[in-house]
Amino acid sequence: MKVLAIADVEERCLWDFYSEKRFGDVDLILSAGDLDPDYLEFLVTVTNKPLLYVRGNHDDGYARRAPGGCLCVEDEVYVYRGLRVAGLGGSMRYRDGANMYSEREMARRAQRLQAKIRLAGGVDVLLTHAPARGVGDLEDLPHRGFECFDDLLGRWRPGYMVHGHVHKGYDPSFKRERQMPCGTTVVNACGYTVLDIEGEGGWNRGWRAAWLNSQVVRHDLKLH
After folding, report:
1. Regarding beta strands 125-128 and 160-163, do their DSSP bridges make them parallel or antiparallel, or are they unpaired?
2. Max Cα separation, the chain?
3. Span 62-79, pLDDT tens digits
4. Please, how many CA atoms are within 13 Å of residue 62, restricted to the half-sphere of its CB?
5. Helical segments of the chain, H only
6. CB burial readout 197-206, b (16+ within 10 A) else e
7. What is the three-class DSSP state of 91?
8. Is residue 221 packed enough to be buried (19+ CB in 10 Å), middle (13-18) or exposed (0-12)?
9. Which residue in 206, 219, 152 sits closest to 180, CA to CA?
10. Is the pTM of this model over 0.85?
11. For position 206, what pLDDT does the model report?
C-alpha cells in the first residue's frame, strides 16, 4: 500500500502544483498535524483517498472547523485495507493549549489506547504529532518527545511510527527515517514523504475492525 505521510508544512508540490501523475497512485494519506484544514480537504478531494489525521500543537482551530472529508484518529485505531493505524496527537505542554500534554497526561492516553490496540490484535502504524523521546526529538521542552511512546513501540512493535513537529530546519542532524531496536521504522513526515506499507489483510474484515472504525466515524461526526 502506498501511503502519503504529511506534517507541519504545506508543500507547494501538493497544493499549488498537485500532479495526478506523481501522486495519483497513493492509497492512503496520514497527516501528523500542524496543517491547514483547507490543505487536508484539498488533498482528500483531489486524491479521492482516505485521509487519517491527528492534531498538532498548533491545530486548536480544528475545534472550530475540523477538516471536512477527513477522519480524526485521536485516541482511536482505524483499520484500512488491513492496515491498523493508532493515533495520539499533540505535543509536550509548554504553554496553555488544547493539544498539549504533560508526560503523565500522554501516558494516560496511551494506556487507554492500548485497549483498542489489543482488540485489533496489534498496530501497524502509530501516528503521532510529537516524536518519541530520544528518537529524533530535541532537548528543548516544546520539541521534546514522549517517553510513553517509546514504551508503546517496545510493547506493540508496529512496523512504523509516523510523526511531525520537528521541522527539517530545526536540527542539522535531521533524518527522515530512524530504526528502533524493536524493529519499528520511525518516520518524520515534515513536509511529505511516501511510504510503502503492508498491513494484515485479514484485518479488513470482521466485527472488531468494523467496531473500531465505527468509533472513529462517531467521533468524527461530533467534530462537524
Report:
1. parallel
2. 47
3. 999 999 999 999 999 999
4. 31
5. 20-23, 37-47, 103-119, 147-156, 207-223
6. bebeeebeee
7. strand
8. exposed
9. 152
10. yes
11. 81
Distance CA 149, CA 124 (A): 14
Cell output for 6: 504529511
Helix (H, G, I), strand (E, B) or coil at 175: coil
Rounded to whole angstroms, the Cα distance separating 81 from 89 reads 23
Q: Which residues pair with 79 in a beta bridge?
A: 84
116 CB contacts (<8 Å, ≥6 apart)?
A: 76, 77, 86, 212, 215
Give me the DSSP letters along 188-219. E-BEEEEEE----GGGGSSHHHHHHHHHHHHH
168-214 residue pLDDT tens: 888 888 999 999 999 999 999 999 999 999 865 555 658 888 999 99
DSSP state of 122: S
